[in-house]
Amino acid sequence: MSFTTADGRKLTYRKLGHGPVLVCHPGGPGFSSTYFGDLAALWEQYTLIMLNPRGTGGSDRPSDRRAYQIDDYVSDLEELRRHLGIERMLLLGHSHGGVVAMAYAATHPARVRSLVLASTLARFASEQESAMRAGMDKRSGQPWYQDALEALEKEQAGEFETNEQMAALVFRELPLYFAHFGAAEAGYLDTLKTEALNADTLLLFNKEIFNTFDLRDRLPSITAKTLVLTGDDDFICGPICAEEICAGIPGARTVIVGDSGHMVFVEQPQTFHDEVADFLGS
After folding, report:
1. What is the DSSP string of the chain?
2. Per-residue pLDDT at 282
3. CATH topology of domain 2-125+214-281
4. Is residue 279's pLDDT more than 90?
């Protein structure tokens, strides 16, 4: 499904399920909502509206290759809310999508009823980097580790130009994002390899945004009931990140999911489903 923004761009989204509308923003940046799959079967209780962010999944790229700032994504989310005709959203953001969801809920507090922040972070500073390095060290005995580490370092350094070069690096590094990487996880990644990723947005994020963005001063503006959920073995957005977000949002609740990395809805789907559904339904 699709709609046209005020500046004439097409944005697409997937619609799945029945029940109250839950707007879902994927991460990356540079990925469409395809990797959400059925989002741990939340469609059984909710109508999932899974946005394909600008430049992914059939959504138009902006004419300005620099128009991938956090607040550009916030603007698209507000356009989606207006298109759907929802006064106050149930909103879920994963990873970079969680960054967007936090910024949106702080900018438009009256437009979010309940907020789910999954596997995300409010900033990336020395504390988060130390936790990331420790998480990576835990995986250093795996046969794929050196290749994944090399790919991650090249990706974060922006050593790619095309969508194809980005995809080649990303799929080499993705084993790091799981608590356990085996046949099932490899099979999940195989289902995503036909997707065209958006290199423009990840390049900008890695070179100019990742090490400088800091949402902490915006978090107290969030008035929505908030759940902050992450895997205990998420090397990049783990418990330290969840606790920092929770400390900044009044009344926020943290759930740390055991035996899970960054992809909680894939690794521990029942726990993810139950925690999110119980929170939204309460």
Report:
1. -EEE-TTS-EEEEEEEESSSEEEEE--TTT--GGGGTTTTTGGGTSEEEEEE-TTSTTPPPPSSTT---HHHHHHHHHHHHHHHT-SSEEEEEETHHHHHHHHHHHHSGGGEEEEEEES--SB--HHHHHHHHHHHHHTTTSTTHHHHHHHHHHHHTT---SHHHHHHHHHHHGGGGSSS-SHHHHHHHHTTTTS---HHHHHHIIIIITTT-B-GGGGGG--SEEEEEEETT-SSS-HHHHHHHHHHSTT-EEEEETT--S-HHHHSHHHHHHHHHHHHH-
2. 86
3. Rossmann fold (3.40.50)
4. yes
